[in-house]
Request: fold
Amino acid sequence: MELKYIHILLNVEDNFLPKAKYVLNTFCRILGLKPKFFTGMTPETIHIYYGTRVEEKYPIHIYYNEDATEFFSKKKLYPHEDVNLVKYRDEYIPFLFSKKGEIFNITSHSVKIRKDIVSSAFYFLSCWQEYAADKEISPSSPYNYHSSLQHHFGFVHFPPVDRYCEMLEDVIKNAFPEYMRSNIWPQGKKFAVSISHNIEYWNFWTDEHIRAMIKRKIRLFRKKTIKALYKVIAHKINQKIYHDPSLLIKKIIKKERSFKTASSIFLLAKTDFPDNRRNYFDKYQDQIIKLFKDSSVNLQGSKEAGYQYKFFPPEWDKLKGFSANGFRIRYLNFNYQNLFKVLEKGEVKFDSSMGYDEHIGYRAGISFPFFPFNIEENRPFNVLEIPVIIMDRSLLNQYGGNIRKAKKHVEMIFKKSRKHKSHISISWHTHIFDKVDFPGWGTLYWMVIKYTKYYGGWLCSLDKMYNYWKGK
Reply:
């Protein structure tokens, strides 16, 4: 008989109980299981036990470190020296709140996970290291990727929470042969890629910008004469070709449709940016509505809108005609707790801001959509996070103009995603498709699309991903 419903006995302190349920619910959603939690004696058969050591044997016992409850009652960082790295398959996985030694202890009667994967996962899913950082994250002071455990121990290229979930899946298969993991993605697809575009400028090629750009290129003539001359001429040609500011966007939409997919669009609605090219919404509103009437349109909010609620409605309300569901903050610069309080109050359905501006990878240690956690109220937020794993701006910050290194890194991320049947969210700014200033970067995006289709991945907009994940 197929195992679909799983009984979990929790023997942890009351304050930690919501956190344990939150993490195990996250695991079960990924694994296609329906959990039922117990906190005391019950006649029901228990499949998983998570709690303090007991004499009674359960099929699966996950180690629980009682110190974790006290740790999460205070605002402090986890010490680097206490991070326990253990090889699992072909990667060294970081464990927190865990004893040293092997990951599993398997006997004829039970399987024990000797690492506290629940507390470890909570640390990453809640972005606790950002919450407890010495310097508060504000609109003018973003979180520094280089201060993260991901950077310090070099595991930003894989999601540890995904791996904890795989460990749980391994022991469930061992203890219950009747467990059959259902296809995590629709139509039997092997992995998933959600795609989106940030529209930073509606008309990138303004006369003012062209004049300023040509002056910069002329100054380069002495050192790089041919290259500078090429760019001056190419920009002038581009300006003529792209006299319709929406032409490039139309081409992107048309080409995506040829792959039988569509992307989500994130628009700027604020109208007082210092760079006037970003203040496009009111000026081009009719064009925008006509172009995106059948598209998934969402808000690329200002840093202020994601920090204090009073700045949020003036931007969000402008997109009501599109039935906007999602939010992404500019430069991925946000205070986790502030952002999701604002979005929850604004009744936003999903967010896609969880990524690093300096580096591609897994800011919350997970590839799959998940619900962030409200630390103050000790409960999940009612906003689904679809973490952004690969953004063009992050790649540019990481590799500069080295498209070869960027491509190699993207290929590595995709190979891992295929292997682990996970999810990647891709964000590409529309102006990065410009072949003059960003040669090869548009091609890299289309390489991703072709790769996904060729290897049997599910390619979808963020809205489709939201609807699917909420229904799991």
Summary: The chain has a mean pLDDT of 91. The two ends are 21 Å apart (CA to CA). The longest helix spans residues 403-420. The CA atoms of residues 200 and 278 lie 6 Å apart.
